[in-house]
Amino acid sequence: MHAQTKQSGKELNLTEKLIARQVTDTARAALKEIVGRNMLPWPDIYSAEFWLLAQKHGYEGILLKRHEIKCGSKQLAQEFLEKADEILGGVNETVSSLVNGTISQTEEMASTIEALKNIPIDDPEVSEGIDRLHDTNIKLQIHSSNMETRLEEQSRLINELQKQLRKDSLTGLLNREALNKDLKKELAKTRRYHYPLTVLMIDIDHFKEVNDVYGHLAGDSVLKVIARLLEKTIREADSAYRYGGEEFLALLPHTTADEAMILANRIKDIVAKHTFIDKTHDISISVTISGGISEFRNGDDESSLIARADKALYLAKQNGRNQIVKL
After folding, report:
1. Domain residues of the chain, as ranges?
2. Is the whole-model pTM more than 0.70?
3. pLDDT in tens, 103-125
């Protein structure tokens, strides 16, 4: 009985490994298929493509577990979205290397053929063979040139995809995934070069009431306008992100907490004075924001720096809103 149970467990483990490999293969194929159609792999598009390919390849193990890993496919999509710029960049580098190698070889071949043509050769077959080689090499050079043009077009597309994958679809600001990468890089530079780095977290006061009273379209409009105001007010060296819901975050390198306080209050005042127009209801809406500031300290990582800004934001809310607190 013990041996049979052990064997069953081994078979189950092999099955799970097979399904895991099929999930990985399907996930990669789904991303490749979507990008190949010049589409962005947003989670809903990615999920649909994932299950379509799983069905097409007859991966019964995945399909039987569909309900168990329904959320898992979204997680896979998110992971691939985070890695997409690396994947696309790698594809671009590989193709570029192949094209450059081909061009280099055809140029070298052209020099060799030219040298051969200058040598007197009595054998007509050899001369004819050299001419054919010359013609073939010219065709290959033209083909390589066309490939180079297509590669440049694909590079532009990949660069655009990389930018889009870093953006929040509603506000146009950088998204949470972009923040995770950028903050890690900025922290590494701050630790190395010892310049100040500050995080400003912003939240719209009573935003739920805007959605409840005027509707989500009006709420979306407010989010987009605040995003534009934030982008216009921060410096070129700073970066603005939609952190989630009605929360925004500004990453401020070479900025102390005191300097960030001046900027944050300027943003707060601009928002408070701005009139948000709800065209659907033909009315104007006024909103305010609260903010929390934290400056990098020795020993900080991404989580602790943002957690302190979040705590400062909470205190601003507790103290009456429409204000900025630094910790």
Report:
1. 1-165, 176-326
2. no
3. 777 777 778 777 777 777 777 77
3-state SS of the chain is CHHHHHHHHHHHHHHHHHHHHHHHHHHHHHHHHHHHCCCCCCHHHHHHHHHHHHHHCCCHHHHHCCCCCHHHHHHHHHHHHHHHHHHHHHHHHHHHHHHHHHHHHHHHHHHHHHHHHCCCCCCHHHHHHHHHHHHHHHHHHHHHHHHHHHHHHHHHHHHHHHHHHCECCCCCCECHHHHHHHHHHHHHHHHHHCCCEEEEEEEECCHHHHHHHHCHHHHHHHHHHHHHHHHHHCCCCCEEEEEECCEEEEEEECCCHHHHHHHHHHHHHHHHHCCEEECCCCEEECCCEEEEEEECCCCCCHHHHHHHHHHHHHHHHHCCCCCEEEC
- Residue of 177, 186, 246, 295 with catalytic role: 246
Residues 146-198 have pLDDT tens digits of: 777 776 776 676 667 667 778 888 999 999 889 999 999 999 999 999 999 99
CATH 3.30.200.20 for the 176-326 domain, yes or no: no
Catalytic residue check, 128: no
Q: Render pLDDT for 7-58 as a digit per residue (tens, 0 to 9).
A: 455 554 666 777 777 877 787 787 777 767 766 555 566 677 788 888 887 7
